[in-house]
Specification:
Number of strands: 2
Radius of gyration: 31 Å
Strand content: under 5%
Distance between the termini: 53 Å
Shape: rod-shaped
Structural class: mainly alpha
Length: about 270
Amino acid sequence: MGCFECCIKCLGGVPYASLVATILCFSGVALFCGCGHVALTKVERIVHMYFSSNPSDHVMLVDVIQIMQYVIYGVASFFFLYGIILLAEGFYTSSAVKEIHGEFKTTACGRCISGMFVFLTYLLGIAWLGVFGFSAVPVFIYYNMWSACQTIISPPTGNLTTPIDEICMDVRQFGIIPWNATPGKACGSNLTVICNTSEFDLSYHLFIVACAGAGATVIALIHFLMILSANWAYLKDACKMQIYQDLKTKEEQELHDIHASRSKERLNSYT
């Protein structure tokens, strides 16, 4: 076999569906974790500088942000290992690998492991749907703040009934800081100053990218779930085929033994 044929055969053994899902999962988790981590740091700075002058008023927010950042570290590490495991599982259960390495025998343990991956991926998919919804909350808050700033900067002609100085953004209503925090809100020109800062612009776009990363992770897990279900069905069919081949081999051996015994009896009778 030449080098070209060998390369073609090796490429045929790659589970491309699992590879695409793994790349999409890694990309989504990386975007969510990386952008989310930086954006949370920017949020802490914005709240401290413009909405809560007393550090004791947002100490709980600081603790929550630190906990979420530690959770991000754990999520990134877990999904890096889990993605590699699912990719390896795709290699060993694909039909292309079977053609390269020859016939293999499935075991009850292997089928249980594949079923466990299906169940675990299903649970992770539901969890990431919640994460995707949760990551949309800061995007909604930032969008409201950005819309208020655009109204102040470019007020609609004849339709604005509220004075510009009374257009405010109160972050206390979102539970970010307690109601006794001061000033707790920004109005008019102070609000436009916040919107023009680099921290606001960067964190806004980072939260959008993090939300998109969470959505990409959900799509990747759904893709993985379809692949794992197909692989589990393949293992189940391979098990049935294995049982059939064993019965067929046993039957052929019995027939061969019967024919050999009869031939021996006939030879003895002639003798």
